[in-house]
Specification:
Blueprint lengths: L2 E5 L4 E5 L7 E4 L8 E10 L2 E11 L12 E5 L12 E5 L2 E4 L8 E3 L5 E3 L3 H36 L7
Parallel strand pairs: 1-4
Antiparallel strand pairs: 1-2, 2-8, 3-7, 4-5, 6-7, 9-10
């Protein structure tokens, strides 16, 4: 798992991808052109893990489109059926980002490295439930649509010359 270790002396998070299994894959538009990414990483403060949090991570220089030192990023190659999409991967090696780049609406890390919660944790859980129920609803819609199309097609399709 990619980690984000807080360094209170420099007020930065050190982003690390310990192995290729922890690399970020299938990131939309990251392969060649994207300058920033939302990276989910295990937050570590004073050797204590606080769970996965989101960080806004600069990937490339916006003028040259070259990756910053400590960032390896590129296109994942040919994709079946969607060749024009620039899906990519990212690997981080001791890459430092400012403390303010952590999304801190509900979880806050102070300059000194104190971790605290803001608001109600149930809000995050409710958002997750809403998202999952939305996925279920969307799946039902698309499966219904596909079934309708396939049944209609099977009724009018002529397989043999004399039918």
């Amino acid at each position: 798992m990619t980690t984000a270790t807080y360094d209170p002396l420099t007020e930065t998070f050190v982003i690390n991808t310990p192995n290729v299994n922890a690399a970020k894959w299938w990131i939309g538009d990251l392969g060649l052109y994207c300058n920033h990414a939302s990276v989910y990483a295990q937050l570590i403060i004073n050797n204590k893990k606080y769970g996965v949090h989101v960080f806004l991570v600069p990937i490339r220089d916006p003028k040259t489109l070259k990756t910053y030192d400590g960032v390896e990023a590129g296109d994942i190659g040919p994709k079946l059926g969607f060749q024009n999409k620039d899906n990519g991967y990212a690997i981080f090696t001791n890459y430092r980002i400012p403390r303010k780049n952590m999304l801190m609406k509900y979880h806050v890390v102070s300059k000194e490295g104190q971790y605290s919660l803001r608001g109600d944790e149930k809000i995050s859980y409710a958002t997750m439930l809403l998202t999952r129920s939305g996925l279920t609803e969307a799946s039902f819609y698309f499966i219904s649509k596909g079934t309708t199309i396939s049944v209609r097609y099977s009724l009018v399709r002529h397989q043999f010359k004399n039918s």
